[in-house]
Amino acid sequence: MQIGLLVIDSGGIGGAPDAERFGDKGANTLGHTAEAVGGLALPHLAELGLAELLPMADIGRVPLKGFGMAVQSQANGKDTLAGHWEMMGITVEHPFRTFAHGFPADIVAQLEKAFGRSLLGNEVASGTEIIARLGPEHLRSGKPIVYTSADSVLQIAAHEAVVPLDQLYAWCEAARAVMVGPNLVGRIIARPFVGEPGRFERTPHRRDLTVRPPGPTMVDVLQARGVETVAIGKIGDIFSGQGFERWIHTENNRDGLERTVDVMLAPLNRPRFIFTNLVEFDSHYGHRRDVVGYARALKDLDSFLPRITAVLGTGDQLWITADHGCDPTYRGTDHTRERLPWLAAGPGLTPGVGLPRNTLADIAATLAVIFDAPVVGDGRPVAALQPHA
pTM of this prediction? Predict the structure, then answer.
């Protein structure tokens, strides 16, 4: 038996009851994307229940073959860590610190001492925009480009021909040591890029150094129970590798999907849990407000799904969810607070649409029942996804 959990990074479906508290009233990532491109045929996602969760979006209504429901995050935050940790039973109650006006002088001084050179940037910015603007100066000076966003992050961008990857990663390790205590941020992110002025491109060699979860997650429990735990994409970064015996880096969404199929096809000697993140939805299209790109990525995912569902054996399931929204039609470039889909496919499932779930921690609770393990968090299992259902 194996369960694959596939995260459409930022794939929100609107209508979060607390969206206004986060300044995101009216945001709807998947729904607005479909509407903006004049309708978007997603037949395989639709047959898992997505069309029922997005009744106003033209994504194609087809007979159900899977089980779907909407989920509301309870985390006090709308970032990557909060969403993924909640799926594994850890609900963030106190958000990590953010820096709305860049990093203060004392932090900058510590970073420059650790790097052995001064910085460029130190502002709240879009990664592609700040690299395009400050990249030429970085090429001349070798100074790292440091920036943040509405999330709790410190990002360091450097050209791979100017700063070797090992050096960039070492700077990130040094920054992780600086950003502690009252300055603690959720992630330090290496943002390598290549190209010439006017044609800079970020590479797949991104690396995230995250805060470790504050306690054991559902992944830790599954691993202790003898379940084979596999992280694909940036999942390993999000959990600092904690609880995963295999950690597979990926180049892009397609690579993440291919690696997921590869793992599912590998000999199954014991129960297996596969956790995959498709980061390009967020990093390439959501934050960049690229509606056409987002729509194309959804179509690519939908077209690929039959390859995954075809390898599901008796007792196997594929789950698809999201960690937050990032509506490419919305104001700004930040994540958006939205309801999230939870879609399931598997040979033994009875097709249907379930009642809305109040927390992503229900995913952890359902995993606990399926793998006969102690539950982490206060979620409640979904009866329709349990083997005996």
Answer: 0.87
